[in-house]
Q: What sequence folds into this?
């Protein structure tokens, strides 16, 4: 049975809604112009009025089917209104606490304070807990309304034009926050909007509300994305998949538009950006360049793609000639989860009684790693050897451009912030360090706000030498 199975029929003077929606997607976005019936449809799902006919089933639970019509309170639906509907006479903390009244449990005063405090911290609004709605910015109002909606552990989250009152930059941040919270708590979501950017960011399934005269209905625009299998190379009848990274580069060589390519390959834009950053680091050169909304392959990128595909064909022929089962080789292959993988050349090795200090050049930047002497000897590390520096994103600190002179960490690498991905708790900051290389850092949302990071800002990545791993 589908996660959402909804058919709403409602007649009003001069207007008739007959809208059907059935999908197993967790996040549904309904787009359409003003007056098309989007809000009327949402209000029926919330139980704010009784439809004339049809049915409303959410996760196999019947809200309405003609004989059953659950009251709004029993549906346990959280509804985030366009104007947030905060109580003007209550503080931020009191507004959030109100979400628990009449919910599925009635906690004591001490427990109530604890839950509210947790959500204040979670959405980074603890510092305005005692402020009133009239004193809040648009983003603060929305975070307050979102905390009030989620504190009651709803079975369904309904969002009615939630970002329309925010400026462009804040809209993007709030989309990321809502998406992160929805994924974390697993609550199904329906969002209505007229902004295609909302649909692109949050729509696992997108539906269009169409109005023709006095009639309005829903039509599916897109289904939940399904990642197709990678292109196959068969060796002795056994498939050997071409990596998605090569498919991505090949597609960009034909169509230098990342969003279009991602839609064609059914992969998220964020995943594609991370893949390109990783390829640039591992190749030791910039394989792609951004020019406005276009992403082009550089000359190095075209050459690298051709070289890798030639090597892949040679490898395929070798396997076929020697009758080797490729699955035996694939069983020996493993992936590394470390976000930062940088190709470089070892410039010096200093050996101690227990540890060795490895100096590796990453483009124009020197990087120092401290590893055990036994590991350095086992890997055969010496000056002139090509190697990879592996650094977890959580081990990278980001500071102002002049912080290098004020800290004791061995590695301070300057760069420019090229991308910031905002999460519910942490932010992911990507630093362009030149020569096609980048570093990704995971820092707390509070730290990012306090430091005021922005795209295009000069900054410095700080990495302890003991947090740098070496591979070759």
A:
């Amino acid at each position: 049975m589908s996660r959402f199975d909804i058919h709403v029929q409602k007649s009003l003077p001069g207007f008739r809604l007959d809208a059907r929606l059935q999908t197993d997607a967790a996040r549904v976005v309904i787009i359409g112009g003003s007056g098309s019936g989007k809000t009327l449809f949402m209000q029926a799902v919330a139980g704010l009025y009784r439809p004339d006919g049809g049915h409303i089933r959410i996760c196999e639970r019947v809200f309405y089917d003609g004989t059953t019509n659950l009251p709004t309170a029993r549906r346990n639906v959280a509804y985030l209104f366009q104007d947030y509907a905060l109580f003007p006479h209550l503080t931020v903390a009191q507004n959030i606490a109100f979400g628990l009244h009449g919910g599925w449990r009635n906690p004591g005063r001490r427990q109530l304070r604890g839950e509210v405090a947790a959500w204040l911290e979670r959405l980074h609004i603890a510092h305005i807990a005692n402020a009133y709605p009239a004193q809040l910015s648009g983003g603060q109002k929305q975070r307050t309304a979102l905390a009030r909606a989620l504190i009651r552990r709803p079975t369904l989250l309904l969002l009615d034009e939630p970002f329309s009152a925010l400026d462009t930059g804040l809209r993007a941040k709030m989309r990321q926050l809502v998406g992160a919270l929805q994924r974390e708590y697993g609550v199904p979501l329906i969002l209505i909007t007229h902004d295609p950017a909302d649909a692109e960011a949050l729509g696992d399934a997108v539906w269009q509300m169409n109005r023709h005269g006095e009639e309005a209905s829903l039509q599916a625009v897109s289904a939940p994305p399904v990642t197709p299998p990678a292109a196959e190379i068969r060796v002795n009848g056994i498939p050997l998949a071409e990596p998605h990274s090569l498919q991505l580069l090949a597609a960009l060589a034909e169509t230098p538009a990342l969003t279009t390519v991602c839609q064609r390959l059914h992969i998220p834009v964020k995943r594609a950006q991370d893949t390109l950053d990783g390829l640039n680091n591992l190749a030791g050169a910039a394989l792609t360049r951004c020019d406005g909304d276009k992403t082009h392959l550089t000359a190095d990128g075209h050459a690298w793609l051709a070289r890798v595909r030639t090597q892949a064909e040679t490898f395929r022929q070798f396997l076929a000639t020697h009758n080797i089962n490729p699955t035996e080789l694939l069983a020996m292959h493993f992936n590394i989860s470390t976000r930062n993988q940088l190709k470089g050349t070892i410039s010096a090795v200093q050996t101690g009684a227990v540890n060795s200090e490895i100096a590796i050049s990453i483009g124009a930047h020197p990087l120092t790693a401290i590893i055990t002497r036994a590991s350095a000897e086992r890997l055969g590390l010496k000056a002139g050897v090509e190697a990879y520096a592996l650094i977890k994103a959580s081990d990278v600190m980001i500071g102002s451009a002049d912080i290098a002179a004020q800290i004791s960490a061995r590695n301070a690498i300057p760069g420019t912030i090229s991308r910031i991905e905002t999460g519910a708790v942490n932010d992911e900051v990507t630093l362009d360090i030149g020569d096609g290389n980048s570093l990704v850092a995971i820092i707390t949302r509070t730290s990012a706000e306090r430091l005021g990071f922005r795209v295009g800002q000069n900054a410095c990545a700080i990495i302890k030498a003991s947090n740098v791993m070496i591979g070759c």
In short: Residues 233 and 294 are 30 Å apart (CA to CA).
